[in-house]
Amino acid sequence: MPPTIRDVAAAAGVSITTVSHVLSGQGRISEDTRRRVTRAAAELGYQASVHARQLVTRRSRTLAIQLANSVDASNACALVPNSDYFLEVLNGAAEAASKRSYGLLLTPADADLDRLNAFAVDGAILVDPRGDEPFFATGWCRDRPLVTTGRAMAAPCPVPVVVDNDLVAAARLMLDHLADNGYERPAMITTDTSRSYAADLVAGYTGWAGERGLEPVVAEIDEPPTAEGTAEALGRLLDRPVCPDAVFTTSENLALGVLHEARRRRLEVPGELGIGSAVDSGSLQLTSPQITGVFVHPREVGGRAATALMDLIEAGAAESRIEVPVRLNARESTAR
Amino acid sequence: MPPTIRDVAAAAGVSITTVSHVLSGQGRISEDTRRRVTRAAAELGYQASVHARQLVTRRSRTLAIQLANSVDASNACALVPNSDYFLEVLNGAAEAASKRSYGLLLTPADADLDRLNAFAVDGAILVDPRGDEPFFATGWCRDRPLVTTGRAMAAPCPVPVVVDNDLVAAARLMLDHLADNGYERPAMITTDTSRSYAADLVAGYTGWAGERGLEPVVAEIDEPPTAEGTAEALGRLLDRPVCPDAVFTTSENLALGVLHEARRRRLEVPGELGIGSAVDSGSLQLTSPQITGVFVHPREVGGRAATALMDLIEAGAAESRIEVPVRLNARESTAR
DNA sequence: AGAGACTGCAAAAGCGTTTTTGCAGTCTCT
DNA sequence: AGAGACTGCAAAAACGCTTTTGCAGTCTCT
User: Fold this and answer.
1) Is some CB atom of chain A closer than 8 A to the CB atom of B58?
2) What percent of chain B has pLDDT over 90?
3) Where are the alpha helices (H) located in A84-226, listed in sequence order?
4) Which one of A155, A170, A218, A317 has the largest count of C-beta atoms within 10 Å of its C-beta?
């Protein structure tokens, strides 16, 4: 049995109150007593019980974080999807949390309300949720603050803080860039539009096309997005009577899949087909040609979300909508 | 204030003992009482306090996990390094933990002992640690079990469970493959050899070279490994009087960097230079040419580590050394 | 019919902290 | 010298559960 505060008090010849005060730097304690207690604690190797402390302070300095829990290609659950974007959001959140001595808890992907409630967390960050996650159930969000990245479109209750990019504008940025480079018939490949980022991008695309009198051409692929599904979607687009001359994808992996399939079909990129990804990533720079993408500052997204959540926990308030800017990184795949 | 067990007891007209027993399925309770309590709990929206429960059970069903906490290229701390390997280990651990209702806590990268002790975890998984991490301090590992992936070479205390690949054999597998394909002067590029996987690979390489009477040529690059550092290391190797005809790297990112630099130097791969990575990854299949790698089953590594840790926590015992097999995935970068 | 087993529930003892309150004793001032 | 402020510490009340123990009352036997 590890030593308790009582053992330290006995060893130092003081009350447990005094021990607590010394170790937490509270109260008025004489220099002499302070030294005695500190020494006794060190000699016993005393470490305050986290559980007892958390019970009384009602804080755990832990944030739950759930990344759009897709199922990966091998049908294995991926708590952290294999995507630079989520990884960067996670790292941004981790960095911000770390600075204020918070930890990040990856909750089981398939956990229901009861299982979620078994974890001691002060709040949760939901990255690109749909809104049907158990975190939105009253039993969870009544007591603990929630921050989302992207809007939870199916959420039954309002969320106090939403961190988001203006992805409608991002779509326009990319499409204008394609038009500037002489592409006349951009098509779009998207994943499941039940998440707001995909919905926004599609909305941006259809709006833009509408203004120009173009017929919007959108191929939606099934979850989970696979290389085969992407190839098949590209095939559907290319088989149309009026064949698109550029493809705009909602994620980096789709863009990589499109490039791969284009190469297989001996389509020249960027000559015969332009490719642009709505989410930039380091991996888009390692291809040849390198792929154009919209950089959405994922690290900042994660960081702002974590910071807002901690503010909500500690101060009870935070900015309710945080918009992170986007930037187009033009590369070879759209330069003809 | 959320309802407590006392509120439920009052509403159902029973003692708190009975409420606890009903909700946890313990003890002998009549069907009628059971229903009354269940209804009262549901009506009040009662959720047992995690903190109180954890205090008395002394369990949090949470595992700390720390991934070789390097610093990434931009000098930002990366709790989850941008590498398929770590991501897969993490997902493997998450999946295994999820199955048994455990969560995974990413602890602050720079946390000292006191800050680590502020988190309620039942044990920790250290992925490729060096041994100087605060988890190895007596104040931590005395009370809680520890499992490592790879051997913590500088650890002050023995670790109850180590999950590892036979990377000496992995190196030989790759080198034999290179020799079979006609490469005669393989060189090696490695990261920091203070982690056991790099040390083992280097040992495997020098042993293999010694047996064949070859002079081992090893370039070690500084932490953190960058594209520039890799390019520079490759340059050093190529400038030697006897120029290597193949490069064996300790990680996927090094291999990608080598391929990139080789292309820049107009070196033909695999013709003039063979490339093999000691750690396979999905990204090695997206390059052209695709890169040969040794698949080390990272998902299984993470899964076995988490399972062993949970066994240690619940049963107090687990297999002490777990070896995960390796497999060579030969691809275009070594096929001449 | 009486002994023993069984049933259904409550009382109470923790679990190990934090924090408020209170109380002697000592200082400082007029 | 006496009032008031200040100092250094302890007592005790939470925090909200789990779990052991005990105790009536009811059954089941011989």
Assistant:
1) yes
2) 78
3) 84-99, 113-116, 138-141, 167-180, 196-211
4) A170
Residues of A whose CB is below 8 A from B87: 80, 82, 87
User: Mean pLDDT per segment of 10 residues, for chain A of length 336 residues?
Assistant: 93 94 89 93 94 96 88 58 88 94 88 90 96 90 93 92 97 97 96 95 97 95 86 94 95 92 92 96 85 97 97 92 97 94
Of B54, B95, B102, the CB nearest to A120: B54
Contact assessment for residue B261 and residue B230, using Cβ atoms and an 8 Å cutoff: yes
pLDDT of residue A73: 47
CA atom of B27 to C1′ atom of D29, Å: 26
Interface of B with A in 132-151 (CB under 8 A): 138-139, 142-143
- B18 vs chain A: nearest CA distance in angstroms? 20
Instruction: List, in order, residues 6 or more apart from B68 with CB less than 8 Å away.
Output: B81, B86, B127, B128, B129, B195
B213-239 pLDDT, tens digit each: 999 999 999 887 888 899 999 999 999
Q: Does A105 sit within 8 Å of B87, measured CB to CB?
A: no
Distance separating alpha carbons of residues B149 and B129, to the nearest angstrom: 8
Given a cut of 60, is residue B309 above it in pLDDT?
yes
**Å: A17 CA to D6 C1':** 20
Distance CA A69, CA A124 (A): 14
Q: Chain centroid to CA B111: how far?
A: 18
Please report residues of A whose CB lies closer than 8 A to that of B48.
Answer: 117
The encoded tokens of residue B241 equal 């009087």
B50 inside 8 A of chain A by CB: yes
CB A143 within 8 A of CB A300: no
Distance CA A174, CA B151 (A): 48
Q: What is the pTM of this model?
A: 0.92
- Angle at which helix B5-12 crosses helix B16-24, to 10 degrees, equals 100
Cα B334 to chain centroid distance, Å, stands at: 28
Question: Cβ(B83)–Cβ(B253) under 8 Å?
Answer: yes
**Res A76: pLDDT:** 56
pLDDT on residue A285: 86
Scanning every strand, the nucleotide with its C1' closest to A17's CA turns out to be: D10
CA–CA distance, A221 with A301 (Å, rounded to integer)? 26
In whole numbers, what is the pLDDT of chain B averaged over residues?
92
Cβ contact B84–A82 (<8 Å): yes
Distance of alpha carbon B170 from alpha carbon B293, whole angstroms: 10
Give the number of other CB atoms < 10 A from CB of residue A204: 23
Q: How many CB atoms lie within 10 A of CB A234?
A: 29
Question: Nearest CB to B120: which of A60, A110, A299?
Answer: A60
Which tens digit of pLDDT belongs to each residue from B171-188?
999 999 999 999 999 999
* 3 state SS of B29: coil
A2 closest CB neighbour out of B104, B143, B299? B143
Which residues of chain B are within 8 Å of residue A295 when distances are taken between CB atoms?
A: none
Q: What gap in Å lies between CA B107 and CA B65, rounded to an integer?
A: 7
Dihedral sign (CA A323, A306, A119, B2):
negative
pLDDT of residue A77: 63
What's the Å distance between residue B219 CA and nucleotide C16 C1'?
54
Question: What CA–CA distance (Å, rounded) separates A123 from A121?
Answer: 6
